[in-house]
Amino acid sequence: MLEDFFVVPAAAQRLRSCSLGVHLDAFCACLADLGYRRPTIRHKLGVVTDLTRWMAEEHMAVVDLDERRVDEFLDARRRRGRTCRGFCVPRVSCRRPRPPVTTRRWPPC
Q1: Four-CA torsion 70, 74, 76, 81, nearest 10 degrees
Q2: What is the mean pLDDT of residues 51-66?
Q3: CA-to-CA distance for 5 and 79, rounded, in angstroms?
């Protein structure tokens, strides 16, 4: 699944080798099931890449990652000029996917 989002197979392989790598196929599948499109999923994978780098800098294991630590990461990312608009830790079950959000023009043409 992860390979579907990269042109260069080495990029997917590099992500698989990070501390969160074992979870990335399920993460991508969950986002796809929720209706996210490829560019958005790739963007979120970039945020996850930044997260794993930050975790390494902080000498943090995956088991230490909680909501407070994610907030610290997002604050650090913003201080470096990187925004996380729309990034959140999904709290929905991927077993029941929601339909994708569509934008509609009003009034209809």
Answers
A1: 160
A2: 91
A3: 28
Estimate to the nearest angstrom the gap between the alpha carbon of 67 and the chain centroid. 15
Residue 25 is encoded by which pair of tokens?
Answer: 């196929």
Asked if 41 and 31 touch (Cβ cutoff 8 Å), the reply is: yes
Q: What is the pLDDT of residues 66-82, one digit of tens each?
A: 999 999 998 888 888 76
- Asked whether the predicted pLDDT for residue 42 surpasses 60, the reply is yes
Tokens of 55: 């975790």
CA distance 26 to 2: 9
Question: What gap in Å lies between CA 10 and CA 20, rounded to an integer?
Answer: 16
Residue type at 28 in one-letter notation: C
| CA distances (Å), origin 26, targets 5, 16, 33, 93, 104 | 13, 12, 10, 12, 30
**CB 78 within 8 Å of CB 84:** yes
- Look up the pTM and report it: 0.68
